[in-house]
Amino acid sequence: MQIGELAALAGVSTRTVRHYHHQGVLPEPPRRVNGYREYGLRDALRLARARRMTELGLSLDEVRDVLAGDSARELREILLELDADLARQEAAIRVRRERLAVLLSEESPSPDGAVSPQMAEFLRCLEPVRDSPFAAADAELLALLDTAAEPEDRDRLLELMRPMTTPEALARAEALYRRLAELDRADPADPRVGALAADFAAHLPPELAAALARAMPGADDPFAQAFLADLSPAQAEVVRQATALLTDGQSS
Q: Which stretches make up the HTH merR-type domain (predicted)?
């Protein structure tokens, strides 16, 4: 049979057949005198197998290797890997649907709701201090972390931050944010800078301070530079000094 007949039999396009030839999935058949390829039943069976495996999610390289050796053991290993990958995708989709369900349950969904339920619960605990622009910025950073971090890393961080949601801790945070706002037009050498940096560092629970010290980006890190760019010179100096206190405290 010719290429069009083979493609129709296997339910693919002639372009797919040629692509499989190019990728080594389907060997080149003998050609007629007129130069046309001449396919047989074995080619049709191989093409049908290739189609079924690609529909399962195998790459063409994997399909080629399996068909080349016709090894059931190798195919089983590949299918197990594929099954594990699909399970991870299924879990990720389930988490996304849970987030979507939370948004849909609200009469007026907010962009803040597009975080995980765990992060959304934590951010609700911070509502008493969210009026501060600095607290709002911190909440945005947490929302970004929720998107970028692995679930287990996020949950560990939230666990370490839980002591900061008590009424006493929120009151201290509100006072710290207010003092930071007062430095908007101050000089970086203002004596209030060092005192506030020390109080910010002391405000963090010890385990959280240790975790943040290990994860602190360097001064040349683009993320750190972007964060500091939104602050006044004195406010940025508070952050730098507080960061130094945290990292120095862990190294000493």
A: 1-69
Which residue reads 């090894």 in tokens?
A: 71
DSSP 217: P
In the block, residue with structure tokens 């101050």: 186
Say if residues 208 and 215 touch (Cβ distance below 8 Å). Answer: no
> What would the two tokens of residue 45 be?
């069976």
φ and ψ of 48, to 5 deg: -65, -40
What is the distance between the alpha carbons of residues 99 and 229, in angstroms, rounded to a whole number? 32
Pairwise CA distance, residues 188 & 238, whole Å: 8
Residue 230 has φ and ψ, to the nearest 5°, of -85, -5
| pLDDT tens-digit map of 36-46 | 889 988 888 88
pTM for this prediction: 0.54
Give me the helices (H) in 57-190, please. 60-69, 72-104, 117-125, 133-148, 151-161, 167-181
- Give the residue ranges of the chain where pLDDT is below 50: 71
| DSSP code at position 30 | P
What are the pLDDT digits (tens) for 32-78?
888 888 998 888 888 888 888 888 788 888 888 888 765 455 667 76
Angle at Cα 42 formed by Cα 47 and Cα 56, nearest 5°?
Answer: 30
Q: Please, which contacts does 170-175 make with residues 24 or more away whose CB atoms are closer than 8 Å?
A: 170/126, 170/128, 170/129, 172/203, 173/129, 173/135, 173/203, 174/128, 174/129, 174/132, 174/135
User: What span, in angstroms and rounded, lies between the C-alpha atoms of 22 and 43?
Assistant: 15
Tokens of 246: 């945290």
Q: Which two tokens stand for residue 74?
A: 């190798």
